[in-house]
Structures are given as structure tokens and as C-alpha cells.
Amino acid sequence: MLTLKLITEETDRVISGLEKKHFAGAKEAIDNVLAIDKRRRESQQMLDKTKQEAKLMASKIGALMKEGKKDEAEEIKKQVAGLKQQDKALQEQMDNAEKELNALLCTIPNIPYDEVPEGRCAEDNHVVKSNLKECDGNDTVGNWTVNPENTEAKLPHWELAKKYNLIDFDLGVKITGAGFPVYVGLGARLQRALINFFLDEARASGYTEIMPPTVVNQASGYGTGQLPDKEGQMYHCEVDDLYLIPTAEVPVTNIYRDVILDEKDLPIKNCAYTQCFRREAGSYGKDVRGLNRLHEFSKIEIVRIDKPEHSKESHKEMLEHVEGLLKKLELPYRILLLCGGDQSFTSAVCYDFEVYSEAQGRWLEVSSVSNFDTYQANRLKCRYRHAEDKKIELCHTLNGSALALPRIVAAILEDNQTPDGIRVPKALVPYMGGCEIIK
Fold first, then answer.
1. What is the percent of the chain with per-residue pLDDT over 70, rounded to a whole number?
2. Residue 150 reports pLDDT greater than 90
3. 329 strand-pairing partners
4. Exposure on the CB side of residue 28, measured as CA atoms within 13 A
5. Does the pLDDT of residue 108 top 70, yes or no?
6. 428-431 contacts: CB < 8 A, separation 24 or more?
7. SS3 of residue 402 by DSSP
8. pLDDT tens digits along 380-412
9. pLDDT value at position 141?
């Protein structure tokens, strides 16, 4: 969440940032924060004052008793008792204000960086890079001839999955329900190949592999901002009050909850493969066909904990890492800088990676790489100690998908169709036991 220091010292910038995110009632929310904080501080000041008064009065009691002034001593005892009752009421006021303040801060999103463009929705995002150019005619990129207006010759991945017996969507419905596919034979092997490839690439880039739990407690959901904002999108195990993770970001980042790190250990670089679970309530239409939107899927996540002055460099390195994966998979891709209105609740800046689906004639999001500034760290109490002056400061947290499998699989199947079968990207051939064509 936003820090009180930021809100009080840069109020106008905070309100402007919230308006860029199209957060309704931005000024009113910040005014309420400042009013509650003022009330809390006033209670604190009064409490400090009454405690000091009580301490001074209590120090006189012993001397009065020695002098035989018992009545005066008893009177002071009564006054001290009265001040203690007043202290109790002031402490309660302060505690209530603190709770009210934290509850309100949890409803206020992060503010975007200056480079984040204005805009309300996905249509307003800025394409900053692409390895193909959409045009009216054909455009050749790598092994593809891409024409977004002519996709009849290509089969969509759900038909290819059935044709080559790779994924059984109907069996998934039988076992669990829609959005829980069953991968079969070479389809399952392709999943495992991608997982191992992504993990090996992450390790080669200096990330330490983590194998975290796939269920977390409420404190972990709160720490990374999924709670209380996204509880409707998470699967909740009510008896044990645990949540199935929507991404490995949640357990991996929470490793550093309530931790003070040493400056010399930063940046921390972790990666993790997990199953991810999302209710995706309200999703419908072409966006949920086949692998486009699932309730359970595999994903490799990269997470960094860094110093504020180095986090932008870390973000750049993460973007380069994800782009390198797409290049090695020989997929047509583009990178978008998300506008304020399309950013997540917790991010300060976010870039999306999309791959092009020839059969569907559209772009499919496969990764979001975000810098959260101190927003998550403030909730997590994730801090670091400066090497020289030992000053303690909030860290910056960052994460990104590297990569999410479903739409990568969809793009590999759709964009690599040949008369002989599905061509396997060269980078995956060793992980597929030498298989170059899925027949």
C-alpha cells in the first residue's frame, strides 16, 4: 500500500497518479486518509501528554507519604488513576484510527510512474516493440507468413489438440469442469519441455529456483495485494481459510514478509514453477475457448527484491529475459506499455508480452512484467539495511511471467502448422527427446 510519508509529503502527485489510474474518488480518499491520520496523531500527542503528567504526579506520591501527607498522596493517586482511564480511552481512539486508516489504505491502488501513458483500457496501451508488422498484405517473420485478415488456412489450437491427440478438453470437463484440460502424450511432454526450458533459462540468468506451496494463508494474500482486492478471483478453502495461488508471485514474494535484508544481498532473484488457479469469474466468449483462459495452468514466475535506485534496471533486465524466451521459441511477439487505466491494482509500471495467433487472428497475452515500487514491500514490511549508515528502508518488489504456458502452447501449435505436422521450436527439441515434428 502507499506509505503515509508519500501521501503527506506529495499529496498532489498521489492524487494525480490515482486519477491516471482512473481510481474513482481519488481526492476524497486521500483527504480521508489525511483526516484519519491527523486524528490518530492528535490522540497520540494527547496520550503522550497524559502519560507524562501521570508519571510526574506519581513521582510525588512517595515523598508525600514520607512526610506524612497521606491525604494529599491519596488525592494524587486518584488523579493518576483518572489519567490512566483517560489514557485507556485515548489508546482506544488511536487504535481505532489506526485500523480505519489501514483499511482505507488497502482500498487505494498504487500510483503509476511518470512514463505510464494516459488511458482507460487495453485499447489505449502503447506498443513499444514488435518483431512483426501487421499489414494488409503478407508479412514474413521467421517461418511464418502472417496476414491478420486471412486465417482460414490455419486450424485453431483446440482443433489441432484434438487432431494430434495432445489435449482432451472434454475429459477435463468430466473430471473437474470447464477450464481444467487434460494433457495427453506429446501434449503432456510439450508442457514438461516448456517448464524445464523456462526454468533452465531462468537459472542461467542467475535466478534461484524455489518450489513453494500452492496454497497460502490470508496474510500472504494480503502481503502481495491479492487480498482484499481479488478474493473473488481466488479459490478459497474455507474450512482451513487458505487460498489456492493465482501465481507463484504470492508465495515467493512472501518469503520476505517481515524480513530486514542486508544491502549486499540485493537484488534477490528467484524463479518458481507452480500450478496456478484462477476462478476467472465473468469470462466468456472467444477469450475462454481452448487454452485461451483456464482455471488451472502451469506458469514459471520470476521475482526480484531490490533497492529503490536499482529497481528500474532490474525491471529492464526482466523484460530482456522474457523477450529472449520468445525469441528462442521463434514466436511472433509484441511488447506493450500498459496505460494507467489498464494497470493492475498494485503495479507502478507494467509491460505485457503478447504472441500472435495466426489461426485466431489476434494477439494473446503471455506475460506481464511489473515493478511495484514500495507498494507491496510496505504491506509485507520487506525492508533492507544500508551497508554504511545502517538506515532501514523499504525494498522494491518486481515480478513477471517467464512464461505462462497455455497461450504459449496455443501459439506454438497454431503458428507452426505444416503439412507434416506441428513443427517443434529448435530450442525445445532437446527437451522433447529429439522430436522435431508432432505428427
1. 92
2. no
3. none
4. 4
5. yes
6. 428/190, 428/193, 428/194, 428/197, 428/329, 431/192, 431/193, 431/194, 431/196, 431/197
7. strand
8. 999 999 999 999 999 999 999 999 999 999 999
9. 45
- Phi, psi (rounded to 5 degrees) for 272: -155, 140
**Is 314 within 8 Å of 306 (Cβ atoms)?**
yes
What's the pLDDT tens digit per position in 162-184? 999 999 999 999 999 999 999 99
281 has a pLDDT exceeding 70: no
* C-alpha cell, 340: 494507467
Write phi, then psi, for 424 (nearest 5 degrees): -90, 130
Distance CA 335, CA 349 (A): 13
Grid coordinates representing 141 are 517473420
Nearest CA to 293 out of 366, 359, 362 is that of 366
- Dist. CA 412–CA 406, nearest whole Å: 10
* Neighbouring C-alpha atoms within 13 Å toward the C-beta of 340: 20
Q: Cell digits for 12?
A: 498532489
Distance of CA 176 to the CA centre of its chain: 27
The C-alpha cell 494474500 sits at 221
The grid coordinates listed for 400 are 513477471
C-alpha grid cell, residue 328: 528462442
